[in-house]
From TrEMBL:
NCBIfam families: PRK09593.1, PRK09852.1
Entry's family note: Belongs to the glycosyl hydrolase 1 family.
Protein encoded by which gene: bglB
Pfam families in alphabetical order: Glyco_hydro_1
Keyword field: Glycosidase, Hydrolase
Active site residues according to the UniProt entry: 374
Protein's recorded name: 6-phospho-beta-glucosidase
GO cellular component, one term: cytosol
InterPro entries: GH, Glyco_hydro_1, Glyco_hydro_1_AS
Keyword set includes Chloroplast: no
BP-aspect Gene Ontology terms: carbohydrate catabolic process
Amino acid sequence: MSKYQFPDNFLLGGATAANQYEGGFSQDNKGLSNVDLIPNGEKRLPIAKGLLDPDKLEKTVNFPARYAVDGRNFYSKDIKLMAEMGFKVYRFSINWSRVFPIGDEEEPNQAGLRYYEDVIDECLKYKIEPLITINHFDVPVNLIKKYGSWRNQKMIDFYLNLCHVLFTRFKGKVRYWLTFNEINMILHLPYLAAGLTFEKNENILQTSYLAAHHQLIASAKAVSLAHEIDPNNKVGSMLAAGCVYPETCNPLDTWQAMQDERSSYFFTDIQVRGYYPSYALKYFERKKLNISINDEEKNILRRGTVDFISFSYYNSRVIGNNNSINKTNGNIFTSLKNPYLKSSEWGWQIDPLGFRITLNQIYDRYQKPLFVVENGLGSKDSLEDGKINDYYRINYLRSHLRELSKAINEDGIEVLGYTSWGCIDLISASTGEMKKRYGFVYVDMDENGQGSLKRIPKKSFYWYKEVIASNGRTL
Ligand code: BG6
């Protein structure tokens, strides 16, 4: 008997996001999105953080989301490759401005909807379960210019209009939905995650939490709407997760690590439990933030709790109190260096046991089914004799999947599925680079968007295929 195994009906597969995969900028009458205005290079981060207005860029910059890896035109070939690997689930996102080009119109753009219907049908053809992220880092630019994006309450209705169209059009075809990708990213990359740029003297914390409040209300309303339209719908939250270790056993370090984790769990606490946690209300008081939650909103939050909790996990982090300068990167959040761990080429600390710890922490906190919707290694690949031997990616994924199996079989955690990130190579969200690759399938394209776009299965493709076929027993 193998040590590792996933439950029957466990959904193993992969994930992409429209802004990093699709391209197809001028197809289907698509409108302009925030992500279409974020360049690669040194201006990317200040823009993503809302500190630099993209309108102030010179004209000659490279906007990778506009072409990405041309998934818009390769989707049927790509889904065929996923089917060859035996995928049970494919997570992808809707480009809001492909369906509602300006965001505040009442009627959707049929050409955009048809595209997503084709993607869904293609999945169903191979018995691949579609898992849709309704919003993964994109906002129609018109909604940013006209309403100030999520700082404005009106966004809730525009988002709900999108949800209504998707839930009715794809009723019976799609069962699994996520309301907002990494909803906690709004506090860290407010323009990329939510279309927010800030005025010079604006109180950034006030605007960010107000916008977050609007997204949380929108998310709860979407859950209720999805259930109303089809009781078979299962709707999940999605959090950028990763456990945080205190740097030392100094209680101050533990306190700080806990505060840090709470700034993320704040979102799931509301989405899963249906009310603002007391620590958040006290925090608003201390910071003099004006986030008023009226009775109607309290009811909306209480009624719209999620069916399951999804999250991304790439790395753990270390937090300390002594302002150590020994920092490294992680999925946007920085961390102190952990002397016990190795890091990826981008400084993200590789911690498979941290994955099991994270699964346990979240399950202990909420006791609801979990879904791992992002995990993987961003790495450079080299093509030698037409082949990519990405043993480093296999090592990363194998060690994480083993811990996932232990969390399920030894800790008793209910996990619905696992979708590795960027199953087909795509553009990096944080850096805009193409060379930071996650896929089982190589895409022939360079940093300037040049290349044949040819898809080439890597060594990990064949390895993952066996993992799926054996439902984890070959791990
Ligand atoms: C998550 C996002 O933050 O991490 C993805 O949901 C992103 O969009 C992924 O691509 C990996 O991050 P990066 O910066 O390596 O692309």
